[in-house]
Design brief:
- The structure is a single chain.
- With 481 residues, the chain is α/β, with parallel strands linked by helices.
- The chain folds into three domains: 280 residues, 2-enoyl-CoA Hydratase, Chain A, domain 1; 127 residues, no CATH class; 57 residues, Nucleic acid-binding proteins (OB fold (Dihydrolipoamide Acetyltransferase, E2P)).
- It is 48% helix and 17% strand.
- The strands form five sheets. The chain has a six-stranded parallel sheet, with helices on both faces. The protein has a five-stranded mixed beta barrel with strand order 14-15-16-18-17.
- The longest helix is centred in the last third of the chain and has 27 residues.
């Protein structure tokens, strides 16, 4: 009689344990893919592994970003022991350029209605667009010499460097720009960049069993797709309106995790563990923004200049040093063009030279021109977030010219002023002899009484002038001499 009751009680006790919802970690990635977003994603994946999460959902909305940061993120996704579902959400979002690569690398690729992906053509370094490697031309090249394209792609990578571009100039932005008109100046480097990017996204597509042909088109032609077209062409796996709907469709799917088949089993409704960017990510995102790094550099230069102009002020030197160090850190992770940076420093130097050695504006105008040219060339990548507004450049150029030349003029005028303290201030001052001055005696100079010496006898009341000072003794001579 009691046995059925005992079984029922045990079932009631076990049921809550088996019904515990799954732990799903949610990362929200918005904006340019760069050092800050890379740090946030890598920390989020490490946290998910520590918390033994069943799944990581990465909500994505990006216009693209740095190739180096994108590849670090993809390596972390491929090495993750936890399935990762990248979800382009909410409606109106996009996974352009670098986002397309990340979507292809993820175990599950999903999009919300009203979203798009694509335009994965790498932006050429140093300005300008990429050559028009169109479909027809690319098909002809592949038909004639398929091995050549692979050779070019392989030449752009170092086998000991996990496929990263070996040339420093290849840290290109996988920006949102589409292909430019065909250029007659197509170079081997440009072809290598395109072939490298094409081979990379093709390998990701083959790894996840997604559309290889369109992946290459998104690199070569900058093609884009809407969410419905992406699902139809097997570029993504799922279209969902919300995270909950995404989890329902994912549940029970089999994915390859570290080359092993893994069945995603979720007890729904799942618990969403949202990982917010910490203060370090937020600070990194602020100071590595190109415009902020540019302003920090100028503030650092101004601060040190004011400190050197007025030693002991401390505040300009301390603040300038901090700003300059932050700017140098930002430049370390940003695609800085050091020729542009050198032009900016040269421009500031010419402005200072104009104040110390007036040239009727030639040095000053040359400094402003060098400053503007350096600011325009400061970033190797062009377009999007790496493009400084012309208003900021011109405003800082004019402001820098006024401030630097004005301060330098005051400093130069101060150096030319007659000293008012010390030995030099005493030389030439008039005085009067208070005692007969044979060897030593007393004199009054500007209301002060000094011990004095002279080369010959000077009677009391003689008007004198100071020649020099030796400690507390003045050497004087008669004023009419």
């Amino acid at each position: 009689m009691f046995r059925p009751i005992l079984i029922v009680l045990l079932m009631l006790m076990v049921a809550p344990l088996s019904a515990q919802p799954s732990n799903v970690v949610l990362l929200e990635v918005e904006g340019v893919i760069g050092p800050a977003s890379k740090d946030y994603i890598l920390r989020g994946l490490a946290t998910a592994e520590e918390r033994n999460a069943d799944l990581v959902v990465m909500k994505l909305d990006t216009p693209g970003g740095l190739d180096s940061s994108m590849r670090d993120i993809i390596r972390a996704i491929l090495a993750s022991p936890i399935p990762i579902a990248t979800f382009v959400h909410p409606s109106g979002s996009r996974a352009a350029s670098a986002g397309t690569y990340i979507l292809y690398a993820s175990h599950i690729a999903a999009m919300a209605p009203g979203t798009n992906l694509g335009a994965a053509t790498p932006v050429q370094i140093g300005g300008g667009g990429l050559p028009d490697f169109g479909r027809d031309r690319d098909r002809d090249e592949n038909e004639d010499a398929p091995e050549a394209a692979d050779a070019d792609a392989n030449e752009s990578t170092d086998p000991n460097n996990n496929g990263e571009a070996t040339d420093q100039d290849q840290d290109e932005t996988t920006g949102t720009g589409r292909r430019s008109p065909r250029s007659s100046g197509d170079t081997a480097m440009e072809r290598k960049l395109v072939n490298d990017a094409k081979a990379y996204i093709r390998s990701l597509a083959e790894l996840r069993g997604r559309n290889v042909e369109w992946a290459e088109q998104s690199v070569v032609d900058g093609d884009s797709l809407s969410y419905s077209q992406a699902l139809e062409k097997n570029v993504i796996d799922i279209v969902a309106r919300s995270v909950d709907e995404l989890l329902e469709q994912i549940n029970g799917r089999t994915v390859e995790v570290r080359d092993e088949p893994v069945v995603i089993v979720l007890d729904l409704p799942a618990t969403l563990d949202i990982i917010e960017p910490d203060w370090r990510n937020q600070l990194l995102a602020i100071i590595t923004h190109p415009q902020v790094a540019y302003i920090l550099m100028l503030l650092g230069i101004y601060g040190l200049f004011f400190e050197f102009s007025n030693p002991g002020a401390l505040v300009p030197g301390v603040l300038g040093g901090i700003c300059l160090l932050l700017a140098l850190f930002a430049f370390q992770v940003l695609p800085i063009n050091y020729a542009g940076l050198a032009l900016i420093i040269l421009g500031l130097g010419l402005m200072v030279a104009e104040a110390f050695a007036p040239s009727f504006g030639i040095l000053g105008l040359g400094g402003v021109a060098a400053f503007i040219a350096g600011s325009i060339l400061l970033w190797e990548e062009t377009g999007g977030v790496y493009e400084l507004p012309l208003g900021i450049i011109v405003g800082f150029a004019i402001g820098s010219a006024i401030i630097v030349m004005g301060i330098s003029s005051l400093v130069a005028r101060n150096y030319r002023r007659v000293p008012v303290t010390g030995d030099q201030a005493l030389v030439g001052l008039p005085g009067v002899v208070l005692d007969d001055l044979t060897d030593q005696g007393r004199v009054r100079v500007q209301g002060e009484i000094w011990r004095a010496q002279a080369d010959h006898h000077l009677p009391k009341g003689t008007r004198i002038r100071v020649v020099s000072r030796d400690n507390l003794i003045l050497r004087v001579k008669a004023e009419d001499n």
